[in-house]
């Protein structure tokens, strides 16, 4: 390898290392995460998740139907803060792996995804076969590694 | 080794170090989970780097068969593991579709479970007798029974009828009362009779009947039967109430603290423009 091509290779190496460092830093600091901008349809965002204006209005209407007096500014703030609290709890639940580790939540998630799949394959003549096909397709695209100590029958 | 100690060697080492640092930072930023790339000793299988552990197998065996996995033969265990793999694949599918954060049923289940876990952490702490006594002393008003009065209120459509009833039947034995026969706290009496009649009733002596009182809806006679003064029951008498209230407040506080922590860690933005706009709609 001559001196000029060696320098060129080193420059490429340095450039790649620098880009890697910059990209890594950006990702660690969350700059690469798409930032959900507040738009007209959202009343707030909680960790980049939108709380829809429609949802807020629905909660306000519900409160108004239960109240004798008109809904005040304080009521509006309270409703918004409750929606933010709810979103925080849900995000905490997802981050805590409740979807896998809590039996009740796990059951609701599985029910929901299965209901969605069943709607998708409603047209099929044999539903159980269609569900099996669906699961097979998930298996085919998955990376499944068995423990060496587990003997498959 | 001696080649490395030359100036060029130092430069190369420096460059390699920088390249390695860049690679390390890039990998730290990525979501790769190195722990999950190999099957650990307690893990039976990895499904897209997600482990299914022996603990999960035991738990599922208990749930499905009512018995520990140790009591099952290998084929039965394998069937359960395959079921867990199917479930894991479906959960991963749900995650990739973002169902967990939009499905109302799942959202409700998640919020409820987080609340239950948070409050359970408080309830799991044993409560000492001293804590309850301190709570009782600092919140005595919560356990104080308010003043209650046993009152009869007779309603007539005309003043003449009220006066006649009062004159000929001072005990008003034949008249039906518009109030329940039990002793009531003052705020309940106010709800039934309004402020004016209640204030008159509060000034009566036990056994005394008021003179006829004209109101827009009729004429009233009030007889105070009995007066039960405000009293604070001793600790032992209301211990179960004290404990229930202590737990209720503790659960609320635990949840508020949890929410305050989550808020501190979160990035929350409010669309003030829309918030103000909805006020005028």
Description:
The complex is a heterodimer of chains A (153) and B (281). Chain A is mainly alpha-helical. Chain A folds into two domains: 1-33; 42-126, no CATH class. Chain A is built from six helices and three strands. Chain A has a two-stranded antiparallel ribbon with strand order 1-2. In chain A, helix 2 (53-66) crosses helix 3. Chain B has 281 residues and is an alpha+beta fold. Chain B has four domains: 3-32; 35-97, Helicase, Ruva Protein, domain 3 (Orthogonal Bundle), CATH 1.10.8; 145-228, Chitinase A, domain 3, CATH 3.10.50.40; 239-280. In chain B, 57% of the residues lie in helices and 13% in strands. Chain B has eleven helices and seven strands. Residues 31-37 of chain B have low confidence and may be disordered. The chains are: A mainly alpha (153), B alpha+beta (281). Chains A and B meet through helix 1, strand 1, helix 2, helix 3 and helix 4 of A and helix 1, strand 1, helix 3, helix 4 and helix 5 of B.
Summarize the structure.
The complex is a heterodimer of chains A (153) and B (281). Chain A has 153 residues and is mainly alpha-helical.
Question: What is the element layout, followed by pairings?
Answer:
The complex is a heterodimer of chains A (153) and B (281).
Chain A: H1 3-28, E1 42-46, E2 49-52, H2 53-66, H3 73-95, H4 98-101, H5 103-120, H6 127-141, E3 144-146
Antiparallel strand pairs in A: 1-2
Chain B: H1 7-29, E1 43-47, E2 50-53, H2 54-65, H3 74-97, H4 99-102, H5 104-123, H6 129-138, H7 140-143, E3 148-156, H8 159-168, E4 184-185, H9 186-202, E5 213-215, E6 218-228, H10 239-265, E7 268-270, H11 272-280
Helix pairs in contact in B: 2-3, 5-10
């Amino acid at each position: 390898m001559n001196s000029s091509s060696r320098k060129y290779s080193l420059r490429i190496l340095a450039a790649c290392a620098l880009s890697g460092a910059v990209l890594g830093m950006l990702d660690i600091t969350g700059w690469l995460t798409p930032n959900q901008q507040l738009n007209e349809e959202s009343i707030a965002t909680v960790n980049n998740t939108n709380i829809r204006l429609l949802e807020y209005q629905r909660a306000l209407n519900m409160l108004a139907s239960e109240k004798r007096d008109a809904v005040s500014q304080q009521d509006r703030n309270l409703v918004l803060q409750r929606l933010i609290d709810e979103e925080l709890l849900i995000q905490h639940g997802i981050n805590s792996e409740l979807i896998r580790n809590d039996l009740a939540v796990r059951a609701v998630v599985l029910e929901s995804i299965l209901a969605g799949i069943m709607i998708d394959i409603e047209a099929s003549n044999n539903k159980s076969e269609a569900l099996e096909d669906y699961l097979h397709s998930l298996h085919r695209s998955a990376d499944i590694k068995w423990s060496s100590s587990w003997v498959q029958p | 080794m001696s080649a490395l100690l030359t100036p060029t060697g130092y430069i190369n080492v420096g460059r390699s170090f920088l390249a390695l640092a860049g690679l390390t930072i890039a990998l730290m930023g990525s979501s790769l989970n190195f722990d999950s790339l190999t099957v650990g000793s307690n893990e039976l299988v990895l499904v897209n780097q997600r482990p299914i552990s022996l603990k999960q197998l035991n738990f599922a065996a208990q749930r499905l068969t009512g018995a520990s996995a140790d009591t099952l033969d290998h084929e039965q265990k394998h069937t359960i593991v395959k079921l867990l793999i199917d479930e894991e694949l479906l959960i991963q599918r749900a995650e990739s579709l973002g169902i967990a954060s939009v499905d109302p049923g799942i959202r409700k289940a998640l919020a409820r479970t987080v609340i239950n876990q948070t409050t359970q952490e408080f309830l799991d702490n044993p409560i000492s007798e001293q804590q309850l006594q301190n709570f009782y002393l600092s919140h005595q008003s919560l356990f104080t029974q308010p003043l209650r009065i046993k009152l009869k209120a007779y309603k007539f459509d005309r003043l003449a009828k009220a006066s006649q009833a009062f004159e000929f039947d001072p005990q008003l034995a034949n008249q039906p009362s518009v109030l329940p026969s039990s002793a009531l706290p003052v705020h309940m009496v106010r709800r039934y009779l309004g402020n004016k009649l209640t204030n008159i009733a509060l000034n009566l002596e036990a056994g005394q009947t008021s003179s006829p009182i004209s109101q827009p809806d009729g004429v009233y006679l009030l007889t105070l039967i009995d007066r039960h003064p405000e009293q604070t029951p001793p600790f032992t008498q209301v211990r179960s109430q004290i404990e229930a209230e202590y737990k209720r407040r503790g659960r609320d506080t635990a949840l508020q603290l949890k929410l305050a922590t989550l808020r501190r860690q979160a990035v929350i933005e409010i669309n003030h423009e829309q918030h103000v706009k909805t006020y005028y709609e």
